[in-house]
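Please check the following.

. . .
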Amino acid sequence: MEPGHVLGGRYTVLALLGRGGMAEVHLARDQRLDRLVAVKALRPGLAADPTSLLRFRREALSTASLNHSSIVAVFDSGEEALGEGVLPYLVMEYVQGCALDEMLRQGPSLSPARALELTLGVLEALERAHAQGIVHRDVKPANVMVTRDGRTKVMDFGIAQILAMDATALTHGSVVIGTAAYLSPEQARGESVDVRSDLYSAGCLLYELLTGRPPFTGETPIAVAWQHVNEEPPPPSAYAPELPEVCDGLVLSALAKDRHQRYQTAAEMRIAVARALAAVVARTHASDVLTTCRTPPASDHVSAPVGPEPGRVQRTRGPRRGRRARRGVLAVVLCAAACAAAAAYSADGSPPAGRAIRMPDLAGKSVADARLSVQSSGLRVSRVVEGACPTPGLPVHRVCGQLPASGDAVTRGSAVVIDVPAPSSPAAQR
């Protein structure tokens, strides 16, 4: 579309904002409401393709029911006559900012706290979409806008699946849909998706925000998809050694191959991200305390007179010098106490190495919550074992056993084994 073209007798096209594989996005002015909007139009060459047309119409259907500050709003939709066919278009909220992938390319690298903040916004959007029965299926940095005031807005529900609809209505089974670097293992295998598939993709997105690269890379999309199915990702700290341990645990829980061992809802993952953010902020503040605990310079608490200036009466400085000295000593004592208190615990809030820790009780927790509890205690999960639970009656994929046992005295860094019911066991059927 050329600038000046009027769509639907209402939207005046001003400029091209971007072009993707399926659509073009133009800046336009809504003549009726006198506001700027973004118009997404299917590329003319695809307008005659029934699958592309259905996919584009589904985006309007998917987002029409979504009203959330973290989702780019769709205001209107229509179809413009184009030769013998039609050109479908969506009228969307115009977001002044940039896509998250552009922000990553421009640099500098994001701080862990900022990466977690941005991910919180993505999870809030997914939480709303999932509540409406919609799975995005293509969560990635290119589909997340960052506004000028730093907020996130998820967009492009073009390949979203409405869970109440037949999944084969848009694609045949075994057809892989999504972007290779952010595909869940079940997507890569061409299996059905659910909300946990979006959470895996959100974990890939967070991985890239923390490290500057996705968890898997390869020469071809097929090679990357194979890794999602068959290889374990290195922890984010392998590429960003300064990251706190809580970030490793959070991301690796989201990237579990078995969807039952991931976070089960966007709300669950959002809470875990919020906890990690609080730990990162606390660590930063503790580091600031340790950095600023310095002995005040001698000039701050010792004043040595060098004699009166000509024509002036020298004032008595003894009492003032005494007060300054006492203040300086008090500052040093308080600072030392604060440093000692901060040093008594490691930056992630867990006891220091060598100190005995009581093993937390993990029974009944989800695998993701169990991992978080273990890591916040200064321990690490070494294995998750299915089918080792003799106790019936536990909900599926909840912890039913652990080693060391609850209450045992262990040292920081010790390995923990978690047991969950096997999917085919009687306990798992309940």
DSSP finds twelve helices and 16 strands in the chain.
